[in-house]
Specification:
single chain, alpha/beta, Rossmann fold, eight-stranded mixed beta sheet, 11 helices, globular
């Protein structure tokens, strides 16, 4: 079943799997890729759960050209997802979030005042000082910052993230369109200018939250090492960490069956 909803900034498309009389799960995608990449996971969960999978603003069916930063950053994404939650009639649900979906999930959880029962996060960031590679560190600097942005967010580089981020199997996230790559650049090129400032509110919310959280990580993730996941876990009040051996940035693609099983066990506890 597919449903649509209109918001002030984008057309809020989402896909829905499973019966409406079951416990609900909201999946928030990251990138590279979009909501399409979550179909196998959503179908795997749909025997026991109602699964809602929206596209973020700027991606998939919600892709639009020339979106400014304030329409694709956390506050706008969160407000749009609140409309999805309202349209779907979700009173209580769990969240699965990947990559950029992770800080959005933290922000959404805070806004919804107890509606989120459990949180599953994978390959993302809640910290104000995450590990950055040398090119990312160059973004805020004069002159070389422009060169760094040009490389990081080129079609070649983003496609390379898809393949180099996958360490197990040959199924990759979908290729992002030119419009999606533009949104990705707007989000991260701006955030990298001041990571501490943009992510400190997320870190504070994550530290104060008592929600039961499962962190799932690949030990071969080339973007966020396991040590990063361990730091996030230490700063949360009620989190546990599962590490998948031989898996990269896309646990839900590279180990779909195991990912689905671990989530079902965690939510059913």
């Amino acid at each position: 079943m597919t449903a649509t909803l209109l918001s002030a900034t984008a057309q809020g498309h989402y896909k829905e799997y499973g019966s409406t009389d079951k416990s609900a799960i909201l999946i928030i995608h990251g990138f590279p890729g979009n909501a399409t990449d979550w179909e196998a996971t959503a179908k795997g969960l749909s025997d026991h759960y109602r699964v809602i999978v929206p596209d973020l603003i700027g991606f998939g069916n919600n892709a639009q050209k020339d979106l400014p930063f304030d329409q694709v950053w956390l506050s706008a994404q969160t407000e749009n997802l609140i409309k999805v939650v309202q349209k779907a009639g979700l009173d209580s649900f769990s969240i699965i979030a990947h990559d950029f979906g992770v800080p959005i999930a933290i922000t959404l959880m805070d806004k919804l005042n107890g509606k989120v029962k459990k949180l599953i996060i994978t390959a993302g960031n809640t910290l104000s000082d995450p590990p950055l590679n040398i090119v990312m560190k160059a973004v805020p600097k004069p002159i070389i910052g422009g060169i760094a942005k040009g490389f990081l967010f080129s079609k070649f580089s983003i496609n390379m993230m898809r393949t180099m981020g996958t360490k197990k199997g040959k199924i990759y996230p979908v290729k992002n369109s030119k419009t999606e790559r533009q949104a990705l650049k707007t989000i991260f090129a701006t955030a990298l200018e001041n990571m501490s400032g943009y992510f400190m509110p997320v870190e504070k919310i994550a530290e104060q939250a008592a929600i039961e959280t499962l962190i799932i990580w690949g030990d071969k993730d080339p973007f966020f090492p396991v040590s990063h996941a361990e730091r996030m876990k230490e700063k949360m009040k009620n989190a546990k960490l599962i590490v998948y051996e031989g898996v990269g940035h896309y646990c839900y693609i590279e180990e779909t069956s195991k990912f689905v099983d671990d989530i079902q066990k965690f939510i059913s506890l």
